[in-house]
Amino acid sequence: MRRFVIGSARNLIESSRQKYQFERSILSSPYRFLSSSPAADSPSSSSSSSSTMAHPVSLNTINPKVIECEYAVRGEIVTLAQKLQEEMQTKPDAHPFEEILYCNIGNPQSLGQQPITFFREVLALCDHPAILDKSETQGLFSADSIERAWQILDQIPGRATGAYSHSQGIKGLRDTIAAGIEARDGFPADPNDIFLTDGASPAVHMMMQLLIRSEKDGILCPIPQYPLYSASIALHGGTLVPYYLDEATGWGLEVSELKKQLETSRSKGITVRALVVINPGNPTGQVLAEENQKAIVEFCKQEGLVLLADEVYQENVYVPEKKFHSFKKVSRSMGYGEKDIALVSFQSVSKGYYGECGKRGGYMEVTGFGADVREQIYKVASVNLCSNISGQILASLVMGPPKVGDESYESYSAERDGILSSLARRAKTLEDAFNKLEGVTCNKAEGAMYLFPRIDLPEKAIKAAEAAKKAPDAYYCQRLLAATGIVFVPGSGFGQVPGTWHFRCTILPQEEKIPAIVTRLTDFHKSFMDEFRG
Amino acid sequence: MRRFVIGSARNLIESSRQKYQFERSILSSPYRFLSSSPAADSPSSSSSSSSTMAHPVSLNTINPKVIECEYAVRGEIVTLAQKLQEEMQTKPDAHPFEEILYCNIGNPQSLGQQPITFFREVLALCDHPAILDKSETQGLFSADSIERAWQILDQIPGRATGAYSHSQGIKGLRDTIAAGIEARDGFPADPNDIFLTDGASPAVHMMMQLLIRSEKDGILCPIPQYPLYSASIALHGGTLVPYYLDEATGWGLEVSELKKQLETSRSKGITVRALVVINPGNPTGQVLAEENQKAIVEFCKQEGLVLLADEVYQENVYVPEKKFHSFKKVSRSMGYGEKDIALVSFQSVSKGYYGECGKRGGYMEVTGFGADVREQIYKVASVNLCSNISGQILASLVMGPPKVGDESYESYSAERDGILSSLARRAKTLEDAFNKLEGVTCNKAEGAMYLFPRIDLPEKAIKAAEAAKKAPDAYYCQRLLAATGIVFVPGSGFGQVPGTWHFRCTILPQEEKIPAIVTRLTDFHKSFMDEFRG
Fold it and tell me: Do B357 and A305 touch (CB under 8 A)?
């Protein structure tokens, strides 16, 4: 059933035919899936057009790794949605729906989620410290936000929130984050292991840049995966070595599958450098069991792989039977320390209950590397000087929120619990709705912000997609968008077992909109199936 | 006198011996210049040490382009300064000075420069919009900052300052920036040409990533240069093609020199893709004359080179006889449009009179590329989702500050003029002081934030440096630091004509500290020269 294919970004970009081979193999579509970008469509032909003749730079002369890279969550379907939205601004009746419902990306505040008040109070005060000792400020801000702002300012040399910081981030903020990690894990954390970054994405890029020397270096990534990984491996010229999550066991991560893929890739001359694990999973929403994590740690230790742990959804767990355990905690609980396993944990202010995507805050905790390699990571960080200070402050707040007894504690925890319990209800409602659709099965939404239902499409629909030069899941998503305004991302953007079709749907639309989404989706699906039923 | 050498990052990293050849050629030092990092010191030997044996990742197995990259402004001398500072925290009398004076980096607020009040008011209000319609807010914030915050919020879909934006940045903010560029240049600017970024550095990386395919692709860079360029070319595996600025004519940029270097590199099989021009200059502080800029534009047009214009110091011009002209304005005034020249202009909120380094805001204006290549730039931007929203807002404020008649206009312009005139005085004082030192000559500080004086070192000092395994300018800077606490960056970090020695000094220490700096520097220099005079 499964095919195990290794896609070398660099080798497979030589011609557009090979490019589609890559897509067909890694992203598991027997169909070329189109992009609205002329670039991705016909890289070799466009240079002969008159518009590019005039420019010194053409698609034929840019870095082929850039052309190779794809990023589905802001890809073709989103471009189309934006176009429809623009049309509706001039002609409100142009389409059979009142608004576009963006379920394509984990961007909670764009869909109406409100920021946590305490966090925003502190950020505002740090942005304009001149008001901190004004009497009006007492009336506008909570006492503990004022106190926290003073604490943070005192941690910043010269109280200069407008200065470049240490390239790993302000030391006092890293102290707070390390203390938060310790409280979470029950094991020590070193502020010197923290690298604050503009969201988690630049941190992932930094590690790929460090580890990838050529297309002979491979990174084990889950399939389905978050496309940041395939994009960043492509940009850095490495090889994505896929391992398949087992949909039948709730997107289970089996170490036997990791071993098989490692051996297959080694037999092809690939040096596997690292294993990416996304927990809770994106786009799949599963939460790993601790025993499973122990086996993964053991595997990385035995095979000498760096464990790249994407833990940005650590606060997003919706089922009582599952709990988030950091890979650092799991490895330390096994007795493994600095010398035993190289582990990088990524965290972000964009997810959790905070959802502060636009602030671009995040960090990576880097353990198990020698001082010499750490120096190199520091050097790469220093070339971009530092991450933005507001994002740094927010990362410290997220890892050190108000405590029992603080003035803001009650309102803070009410806001937090309100968001998380609503997300859990939305996840369950959507999961149930998907499972009621003909030919659709959806695993339990244990965590993260997504559902990744599987859809068995009628043969006629697959033929219609082929005629429209679309992958079948992309065809379904485009028809859904055109009929309802709902934006899902086709599974082919994340990778899937060949011959299976999925889509990713976020659980983020406001709760009161969920019933209408379910109705519109259900109606569309029924008519789609009626149209194509054999 | 001059040597014209092309350094291929990838080829020259094979061994440490070759690495030092690269440094000797491009960075023009006949001496190996040391780094405190064990990595840069002995990449081949460290893997045999016991500490790295335990780790799966060693210097031998990471990306050699990372090892190759150097970033002097946060390099060895700064690490040493930080060490001294730490020592002084426990032992205040450990060194013969009371504080470390960081003149190594353009980081104004770290040295006490205050942020522009209006900018910070708007940022704070956008961070915590809940206070916008509270009565206390009227007492704390200016009326036009409240109005501007409302305007900006209305430009953000859903007023969600915590949401990911369009990957080029929020459209309304790009409109403001485009209007600011039009007002500056007198030629139209298109908001769709603007890509907002976390400071200028990621924008430079993005263009290098786009243009560099292999070590056969060259980028023409000034020598001396800002080390972001050498670092980013090294990280992307390209070749830095140096052109020398003429110190004798005030760091003049001669097109004949560009042509010579272009031909030399072509004869070696290098495809030159782009020309980097930094105007006003870093580290050299010169401001290009308009006629000179026209010749540069003509050269790029004729040779089909992308013009990468680092214009982050566009507000930092200190002499009445010089004026900043953007390369976009110059090329449009020559009648050259979209089809004639590919031009990228970089701007940042970190410089100018605002100096908001920690906010990580900036943009690039991308013109003269075909739609297909633009799609690729957009795709790369989208992989990191978007730049931070506070930085985006600040970039719009910097390009659209208060106007005559606005409530804040007078205080805003007083703050701005106060900073700029003080910087001009500091530049002149330091320039005069350098020119009074034996063996030191310093070009006029026309703009930017730096002076790059030349120092003729006695033969005995060069010998002493050699014995200490330092480049002579690094040796001078280390001795200066140890004696006075003043941090300069040796010229070898920027590149210089072989056999000449320089250092870079920012003009940023607070004005009242400048006399003491001059005295300490003068005393040190006299005793240094006395020690080594032949």
Answer: no
pLDDT tens track for A65-75: 998 888 776 77
Give residue A54's pLDDT band: very low, low, confident or very high (50, 70, 90). Answer: low
Task: Supply the ipTM of this predicted assembly.
Answer: 0.90
Q: Which residues pair with A7 in a beta bridge?
A: A240
Quote the domain boundaries for residue A464. Answer: 64-100+412-532
Q: How many angstroms separate the CA atoms of A100 and A253, rounded? A: 35
Altogether, the residues listed in chain A come to a count of 534
Tracing tokens 């969600």 back to the chain, one arrives at B160
Give the separation between CA B18 and CA B7, rounded to whole angstroms: 10
Report in angstroms the alpha-carbon separations of B135 from A117, A145, A256, A431, B131: 18, 19, 64, 46, 9
Please judge whether A162 and B232 are an interchain contact, meaning their C-beta atoms are less than 8 angstroms apart: no
Tokens of B330: 């110059």
In a domain, B519, yes or no: yes
State pLDDT tens for residues A450-461.
Answer: 999 999 999 999
B11 within domain boundaries: no
Summarize pLDDT for B380-410 with one digit per residue, the tens. 999 889 999 999 999 999 999 999 999 999 9
CATH number of the domain to which A273 belongs: 3.40.640.10
- Cross-strand pairs, B493: none
Backbone region of residue A296 per phi and psi (left: phi > 0; alpha: psi in -120 to 50; beta: other values): alpha
How far apart are alpha carbons A48 and B481 in whole angstroms? 58
Reported pTM: 0.90
Q: Judge whether A146 and A138 are in contact, CB under 8 Å.
A: yes
Integer Cα distance of A511 and A518 in angstroms? 11
C-alpha pair distances (Å), B209 with each of A65, B219, B400: 9, 12, 30
Q: Which amino acid is at B417?
A: D
The beta-carbon neighbor of B124 closest among A128, A340, A350 is A128
Whether B251 and B385 map to the same domain: the answer is: yes
**If 0-12 CB within 10 Å is exposed, 13-18 middle and 19+ buried, where does residue A11 land?**
exposed
Question: B357: which chain A residues are within 8 Å (Cβ-Cβ)?
Answer: 162-164, 385
Angle at B264 between CA B260 and CA B268, to 5 degrees: 165
- Euclidean distance between CA atoms A105 and A489, whole angstroms: 9
Is B66 close to A115, i.e. CB distance below 8 A? no
